[in-house]
Amino acid sequence: MIKLKLLSFTAALLFQVFVLKAQREAEDFEAFARETAAKFELPSMAVIIVKDNMVVSSFGVGNKSEMEPDENTLYAIASLSKAFTSVSIGMLVDEEKLDWEDKVIDHLPWFKMHDTYVTQNMTIEDLLAHRSGLETFDGDLLWYGSNYTREEAVKRIQYRVPSNGFRDEFGYQNLMYMTAGEVIEEVTGATWDEFVKTRILEPLQMNSTTSSFDQFSRSENIAKPHIDGDEIPMLSYDNSGATASLNSSTGDMTSWMRFWLNNGVYNDVTLLSEDAINKLWSMHTPLSLGAFDKANNSHFKGYGLGWFLMDYNGRKVIHHGGGLPGYITKIALVPEESLGIVILTNDMTSVPTLMMYAAIDWAMDNDFQVWQETFLRFKENAAKREEDQKQQRLKTKMETPQLLEISKYAGVYEDELYGKAEIKLDNDGLRMKLLPAAALFSGRLTPWSDHAFRFDHNDPFLTYGIVKFIVNSNDVDGFTIDLPNYDFHFDKLAFKRID
Description:
Blueprint: H1 2-39, E1 44-51, E2 54-62, E3 75-76, H2 81-94, H3 104-107, H4 116-121, H5 124-129, H6 150-156, H7 174-188, H8 192-201, H9 213-217, E4 226-227, E5 230-231, E6 247-248, H10 250-261, E7 265-266, E8 269-270, H11 274-280, E9 285-286, H12 291-295, E10 301-303, E11 308-312, E12 315-324, E13 327-334, E14 339-345, H13 351-363, H14 370-394, E15 411-415, E16 419-426, E17 429-434, E18 442-449, E19 452-456, E20 465-472, E21 475-482, E22 495-497
Antiparallel strand pairs: 1-2, 1-14, 3-6, 4-5, 7-8, 9-10, 10-11, 11-12, 12-13, 13-14, 15-16, 15-22, 16-17, 17-18, 18-19, 19-20, 20-21, 21-22
Helix pairs in contact: 1-13, 2-7, 6-7, 13-14
């Protein structure tokens, strides 16, 4: 009996030592995260880490006047929405209502790409694997701040000529995920939002997560969007639907991670088959390794269906990032370590990726402190490139540009893919409005260079644009917009005069 009591006491003592050690390590990681957030001047950050089905670290960081977020604070999670779409498709495949190789036009007869062959052969799997032939972010101006419905935006992609061959190269495609959302509605009779809510959010008890901007914006516990530390107006992304419209919290995302790490099972209920998960987590579109990947001893990188895939520290990492103006988010799963990580922020920095690598190293007892210095160097280099681009652009400005009579530039113009633009002359000069997103892209035109004007609009996320008019003799035939941005391809728009 004495021996048994001694063994029980020893076990209890060892467990207490283990708990204290875990708490100290978690405190060290949290201190690192707080220091990182301060150095990158983040308004707020919420982090949660799950290991072996337990929450081993959960905290919020608030800087300046921002409140410290808790596990219920809502953030726009942007493209983390894509995995909810691929899971929805997987569920329908499990139920034999869809097949991965189904042609899109068999479910959406109105679906059309620029190339007839692509239209006829695009499959459900192609939609989710980013191999449509379109470049990364092609067509995103169709949903960004626009008044187009999801279906209208998808229908307009037929006017974009693909830059790559069908299934030849990776091109991150939001419009194709929106198309997948339309397929879900056609097959089930429920909108993408309704399907995700009833089949995923409710079973996982993700009660705060919503795809409704109205619900999100009226929440009393919300992280407001910021750019460079300044709060910006909230914008509805409801029309992005299946590609980027979800808003969630670290508390809710914990259930999402547990669902994945338990092989599609939650509360002893199988929501997604193992075959479907293997399909989603298998590489469908390979990506080339860059210098950063090679420096971290990664051997492969690619895209599954709704997830990026890579190896790190000898482990397969399934991850995805999300970004919208004022929000950057990250989720990472390391199944072999039963490890899940979610980082939510409300400013435009690389901290979520930094924290992903740091959290994996921390959980695997590796040095995680090095990532702060690495990403601070990236930040400095990016700032220098941005300043160089700004100075290069300013060199094109002229003191006395050659211009026609100012009224000749006024009129109605149209880009086949994007839609109409209206330029009017008032007492203060020319004003331009891009009609599909008039609330964002309206503003003054001021002379810049020969037949070109600076376009100052209402969007705090984007820099000013340079509108270059195409002049034939004494007539204005159209214009282009020089507005450099990685996310939105203004350079592909060609407005022709129609009035």
